[in-house]
Design brief:
homodimer, DNA-binding, Nucleoside Triphosphate Pyrophosphohydrolase, two-stranded antiparallel ribbon, 7-stranded mixed β-sheet, 2 domains, 4 helices, Arc Repressor Mutant, subunit A, alpha+beta
Chain lengths: 231, 231
DNA sequence: TCCGGTTTTCGCCTTTGAATCGAAAACTTC
DNA sequence: GAAGTTTTCGATTCAAAGGCGAAAACCGGA
């Protein structure tokens, strides 16, 4: 039997604010201190162990870089297998998408930093392709699932949520429409509380939370759905 | 470095007619002649070789069971890694979805047969889960992409296409609606030809083909799309 | 206390695309 | 030519998202 190495890699994404009011989608990377590719930035990950499946493995590997209890969502992305994707002995990689809610700010090791996904530094191997794949997966799932819960704090105003979505999707989002779409789907629950207005005043915003914090497909808009039989 | 085996598996799906007029979604399986799991039905696949990536590997392995030129579409599904998913030395599996258009009827080896996905025989290892995953992927992509081209013959009538979709989706489909949805999306092109009516008469049906035979997302119904800026 | 400024919220309307229905068209056989 | 079949097409309804502006609820300062 042909034996080869298998690693797991995770693109952990979070919407973060670098300067106040300026949110951006960022990814967790660590800088390589040794060859190969010294100085380049890598996704966290490592070799799969004998007694773990890849889902367990990715959580174990991530624990070295970040508090895994702050991971609100992890899902498999794809497996990358080009024979020359890394130098030396062949290694297959299964990539994951991880999400951290925006109210967390995990302690990071010295070699590890957040980087804007739209302004990546020099990355190692095929990691840039993996990061972009993770971003695309997040963007499409924000549309047709309730995955927003994994980016948002436990409770939030519509304006805050709008900024989160806007940073993650990379385009402007209307607060009016966001609220209507999510609440029509039953994803939003009002807490009854209100946030205190900012220094410039204004009507106090109502606080919401996601109805359900398990990922749930909103029906990938079931086109060609079965005939209703309704008359 | 921890070395382990890596195999690729393919769930090749086709809409086939067992008795005339009765279409069903079927999957290509071969029956195991040796331990482990003698007599159970397996997905085609095999060990990844040193110089190939998994996409090449799956096509190579499939060539042993079916004419690969008849494969109209192949895509990666997911990687399965439970340590005990097969007995003996550990093997990771990356599963693929393959599609064959309904006008093909490939020559098959003696140990290989088509089986209805909704009436599977006793399958080996975790292969049933993979088959169901493949079916679900096909069903959702039929809705929001033009993947139908991979199931359909080069040219077809709307009625034929309706039966194909109906068998693949597992529910009735309205011909009227199917035609309008696909042509609004620009996926259908009329050939100008018409099919000859059946033995019972009836208006001759117009022949169509898919505008484009590369997979193309129809916009996963871009909810929360960017503001139009239109006034 | 009143008033302008600010932010959120809500209702109404438009737009888009899918589902339904029924009638017309085009062919068969008798 | 009449009756029966099947396809095709237009008109209508229905559902969900996007756009817009007015009303609500707060601020600070005159």
């Amino acid at each position: 039997m042909n034996k080869l190495g298998h690693e797991v890699l995770a693109a952990v994404l979070q919407v973060r604010s670098r300067s106040p009011g300026q949110l951006s989608l960022e990814v967790l990377l660590w800088q390589r201190a040794r060859e190969p590719q010294v100085g380049r930035w890598s996704l966290p990950g490592g070799q799969l162990q004998a007694d773990e499946d890849i889902e367990r493995s990715v959580r174990r590997q991530l624990a070295e870089k970040v508090d895994v209890r702050q991971l609100s969502h992890v899902e498999q992305l794809a497996t990358f297998s080009a024979p020359d994707r890394v130098p030396g002995p062949r290694v297959i990689a299964t990539a994951f998408l991880g999400l951290v809610a925006s109210d967390n700010d995990p302690e990071l090791p010295d070699d590890t930093q957040w980087h804007r996904v739209d302004a990546l530094p020099r990355t190692a191997f095929d990691h840039e392709a993996i990061i972009l794949r993770a971003r695309d997966r997040l963007r499409s799932k924000l549309s047709y699932t309730n995955l927003g819960f994994a980016l948002a704090p436990p409770t939030f105003t519509i304006s805050e949520l709008r900024e989160l979505y806007s940073a993650a999707l990379g385009h402007r989002v209307s607060a009016t429409n966001l609220q209507r779409v999510l609440s029509r789907r039953g994803q939003l629950t009002t807490t009854g509380e209100t946030a205190s207005p900012g220094p410039t005043g204004g009507r106090p915003a109502a606080l919401f939370r996601f109805t359900c914090r398990d990922i749930r497909v909103t029906d990938p808009v079931a086109v060609l759905r079965p005939p209703s039989g309704r008359r």
